[in-house]
Amino acid sequence: MSIQNDDDNSISICANCGKDNATNICNKCNSVKYCNAACKKKHRTKHKKQCERRVAELHDQLLFKQPPQKEDCPICFIRMPYLVPAQMYMACCGKVICCGCIHAARARDKNKKSASLCPFCRTPTPTSEKEAVKEYVKRMEKNDAIAIRNLGGFYARGRCGLPRNMARALEHYHRAGKLGDAGANHSIGYAYTYGEGVERDVKKAIYYYELAAIGGNVNARHNLGKVECQEGNLARALKHWMIAVRRGSKVSLDAIKLFFTNGHVSKDDYTEALQLYQTYLDEIKSVQRDEAATFNADWKYY
Predict the structure, then answer these.
(1) Diameter of the chain measured on Cα atoms
(2) 98 in helix, strand or coil?
(3) Contact, 234 vs 264, CB < 8 A?
(4) What is the DSSP letter of 264?
């Protein structure tokens, strides 16, 4: 019995014995049905290769699907830059604000009492590391994934008065990752790549990089491209880097440029990458962000 299309839910013939009204579905590929567990077990050997092939196809469909778009800045409503220095998380209200709006608020409120207020909720910003950590803890109690991940980052680097503790950092990363934070999953993948707080494990690193990439993390997407490149899978590497470039990864664009220079990527592919990156720059550009980048080199968004 051939594998039935998993989209055709009306077909209910057992792949082993051919009887109708089969309801026991293969829980790996969701493509075939069986009368019961006994039929599933008998057919396992025949189904194995087709099942593995279908599972790989479904995995790639999810992995190479365009990830969710990052939310726009809640103040200017312009697409948010992907570079971390070009945005700032506000623990008071849980909002991520672009560098342009932060710079504009500071310039507007310069020499005023309101200079230390959050650009979004106008809450006074913390005046000490201790106060800042308290705000993060409050957000963590509300299951704010970014706050949890950032606290993990503080432990990982020993910042904001917290001791360097990778075990605590990973606890926070895993909690934030389970809440759907792509950045946290990237940090876990990074830890497994370099053995920070855990033993080095390439398979686990790739697993978490894939979770992060599917969730929209650009750095994880680029790293997956590097892994595929190292294994000689240049076509898959290019697919990862194209997705990353679409979301503003200059390092992925540079990788594609290098491949083009060495004759491993076609002119059409390199041209498409350049166009995707330019589209990204056009979408995130604003006068305020240009001013912010001029005022503070760390706030560049390209």
Answers:
(1) 81
(2) strand
(3) yes
(4) S
Closest CA to 3 of 43, 56, 38: 43
**Whose CA is closest to 207, among 81, 111, 198, 32?**
198
Tell me, what DSSP letter sits at residue 22?
Answer: -
Q: Is residue 244 part of a domain?
A: no
Q: Which residue has the tokens 């998380």?
A: 89
Question: pLDDT 10s digit of each residue in the chain, 302 long?
Answer: 333 344 444 568 999 998 988 889 988 888 889 999 999 889 989 898 999 899 999 999 999 998 888 889 999 999 998 877 789 999 999 999 999 999 998 888 776 655 578 999 999 888 888 999 999 999 999 999 999 999 999 999 999 999 999 999 999 999 999 999 999 999 999 999 999 999 999 999 999 999 999 999 999 999 999 999 999 999 999 999 999 999 999 999 999 999 999 999 999 999 999 999 999 999 999 999 998 888 776 655 54
Q: How far apart are the first and last CA of the chain?
A: 54
Instruction: Name the domain count of the chain.
Output: 1
Does a structural domain hold residue 86?
no
Q: Is the pTM of this model over 0.90?
A: no
Would 240 be classed as within a structural domain?
A: no
